[in-house]
Design brief:
heterodimer; A: mainly alpha; two-stranded antiparallel ribbon; B: mainly alpha; 4 helices; 82% helix
Chain lengths: 141, 127
């Protein structure tokens, strides 16, 4: 019997957008509110796992052609580079700073270098989780 | 009676009715005979109970603290979308693993449909 569940696939198409939006919100809210890179990465990974459950492995790979091992490696590189960038300004490793900028749409916005480090954590968490789950789910060969 | 008292009464009614509905749904899970009836009790009334509680919390924070929490509204939409789909999937997998219906049930349309499909398949392969 072929497994096609229209209810699950239709609900997934809507829910993935809500979960992805919420994960991005959590990622950027982490500086002042509960949240951050780790939990945001896990929420994004859960949205991708929902896609993998509702559709098959190959069609999701066609939609999102990302090698998750490379994503995890890129996340670690981003996190390390934000640490070493503090040497340029002659301050200790992993020193962070922030400033207030007037952006065209958002108005007065706080830009912190810790967000870039959080982005590295986010990419690492998404890459690691998805590597674990996809490599477990396809061991029939 | 000023506006704040009215809001507090409305919030109280919403949260109490949500709690009572969740209690009724858990009673239904204990009392009803088979998995299909239990899913009927748990998905519908628990979803409505949670929606009432979340709406009460949203109204309370909106009128007393002036915070319009988008996360609560998003949670209402999310629970409203996911809970019926989750119930559908559980019941579908229960029916596919041939969980028996309660003795008082009289009709199983899905089983009839699956049997008729199987008959069509077997007749087309033999002919």
């Amino acid at each position: 019997m072929k497994f096609t569940d229209v209810y699950l696939q239709t609900a997934t198409k809507i829910l993935v957008f809500i979960i992805m939006t919420f994960s991005i919100y959590i990622l950027f809210a982490g500086h002042h509110n509960p949240g951050g890179g780790f939990i945001g990465g896990l929420i994004t990974a859960s949205a991708l796992v929902l896609l993998y459950i509702a559709f098959d492995l190959q069609s999701v790979r066609d939609i999102i052609p990302v090698d998750f091992k490379q994503l995890a490696a890129a996340g670690v590189i981003v996190a390390v580079l934000t640490g070493t960038a503090s040497f340029i300004f002659d301050v200790p490793f992993l020193t962070q700073t922030f400033t207030y900028v007037e952006l065209p749409i958002l108005g007065k916005t706080e830009l912190a270098t810790a967000v870039i480090f959080d982005l590295g954590v986010y990419m690492t968490v998404v890459g690691t989780t998805m590597t674990i789950i996809t490599s477990i789910s396809e061991d029939e060969k | 009676m000023n506006a704040k008292v009215t809001i507090e009464i409305v919030v109280g009614i919403l949260i109490m009715s949500g709690t009572v509905m969740s209690l009724l749904s858990s009673l239904g899970i204990i009392r009803l005979p088979d998995v299909y009836n239990r899913a009927h009790a748990s998905t519908k009334s628990a979803t409505l109970g949670i929606l009432c509680i979340l709406l009460g919390a949203f109204l309370y924070f909106f009128y007393t603290h002036g915070v319009s929490s988008i996360r609560l509204l998003l949670g209402i939409v999310f629970v409203f979308l996911t809970a019926p789909v989750a119930g559908h999937l559980i019941i579908r997998s229960a029916h596919r693993s041939k969980v028996a219906l309660a003795d008082i049930s009289v009709q199983d349309d899905l089983q009839d449909y699956l049997d008729s499909e199987k008959d069509v398949e077997s007749s087309s392969t033999t002919s």
